[in-house]
Automatic annotation (TrEMBL):
GO molecular function, one term: nucleic acid binding
InterPro entries: Mlase_EEF1AKMT1/ZCCHC4, ZCCHC4, Znf_CCHC, Znf_CCHC_sf, Znf_CTCHY
A UniProt-annotated Pfam family: N6-adenineMlase
Domain CCHC-type: from-to ranges: 239-254
Localization per Swiss-Prot or TrEMBL: Cytoplasm
Domain CTCHY-type residues, every copy: 166-230
Main location: cytoplasm
GO CC terms: cytoplasm; nucleolus
Full protein name: Uncharacterized protein, isoform B
Source superkingdom: Eukaryota
SUPFAM superfamilies associated with the record: Retrovirus zinc finger-like domains
Record keywords, A-Z: Cytoplasm, Metal-binding, Methyltransferase, Repeat, Transferase, Zinc, Zinc-finger
Length: 300
């Protein structure tokens, strides 16, 4: 969807079908490999029968959806479209609820929005460069100092994606390829960087942060020093105790009824080598339920 250059590259090597909003492609592609389509509302402008014939008889192991939507699109709309196409494929082939392999090309700073809609998708470190977008490439005067911010989000296990050795490395602890700048953190048990920089681990936050971030003792987090406003910043944070957005741990309404004598370090046990989200005493105060990478926290 919305990836014409990839389609023209694959059409003579693999069976490929292009869904795109640009009707000019109809001059070069026949109806057996192109449909005029709006990915924001899953609308076929003309007959979608050729696309259904393309889906017919293809198993979920043989079919891959690659989508490169405009970066201004709402992730809710694209997620709904992807689920609709999966449902259509299952209906045509009379399959149960079977997932399809998805590659969603989008900037890394939209990762939280994508995971909120499709928590099964993980971000790959592979950078996507555009030749017609000066800000989304690794070359040129207007390129970002960390390279292109565009990444691959996929439900394919990252260990199956072999990235080129130039600019990437294999992390044995994560069992997948990552950017060379993305150094593994033993404390966080992952390669934490998402923007192409080498993150640093903050002992006070007990988390890996961007190298230019500084720790704010009032907010109990690392953030940008320039323009930082504690009151406003705290309203945008997720509480490490209850998981809800809008406050930090010292102002948690769900935990204020609990009487603890700790004002520094971890509010649950008083130790300073970790924060509440990793405290062994969490089970005494909270019950956590995890489903499809989504965690629901209940206060006891």
């Amino acid at each position: 969807m919305g990836a014409p250059r990839l389609h023209f590259h694959l059409r003579h090597k693999l069976q490929s079908f292009l869904l795109d909003l640009d009707e000019r492609f109809a001059e070069y592609l026949g109806p057996e490999e192109f449909c005029l389509y709006n990915m924001c509302n899953n609308h076929f402008f003309y007959d979608r029968k050729p696309f259904e014939q393309f889906l017919e008889g293809t198993s979920s192991e043989q079919l891959v959806i690659v989508t490169d939507p405009p970066f201004g699109c709402r992730t809710e709309l694209i997620s709904h479209t992807l689920r609709s196409l999966r449902k259509l494929h299952n209906q045509i082939n009379r399959l149960p609820c079977t997932p399809l392999s998805i590659f969603w090309i989008y900037p890394y700073y939209s990762a939280n929005h994508i995971r909120q809609e499709m928590p099964e998708l993980e971000m790959c470190d592979y950078r996507i460069n555009y030749t017609n977008h000066l800000r989304y490439t690794n070359v040129g005067k207007q390129s970002r100092f960390c390279g292109s911010p565009v990444r691959l989000f996929t439900n394919v296990p990252l260990r199956l994606l072999k990235l080129p050795l130039e600019g990437y490395k294999y992390c044995h602890k994560c069992d997948c390829y990552t950017a060379k700048e993305n150094q593994h953190c033993n404390r966080c048990e992952k390669c934490p960087s998402v923007n192409g920089q080498t993150y640093k681990h903050c002992a006070s936050c007990d988390a890996c942060v961007k190298p230019n971030y500084v720790h704010c003792t009032n907010c109990r987090r690392c953030t940008q020093k320039e323009g930082h406003n504690c009151s406003f910043y705290q309203t945008k944070q997720h509480c490490w105790l209850c998981g809800q957005k809008g406050h930090i741990e010292t102002k948690c309404p769900n935990f204020q009824k609990r009487k603890t004598n700790y004002s520094k370090g971890c509010l649950l046990c008083g130790k300073r080598n970790h924060r509440e989200k990793r405290c062994a005493y969490r089970t005494k105060y909270f019950r956590e339920l995890c489903f499809m990478n989504e965690t629901t926290i209940q206060c006891l």
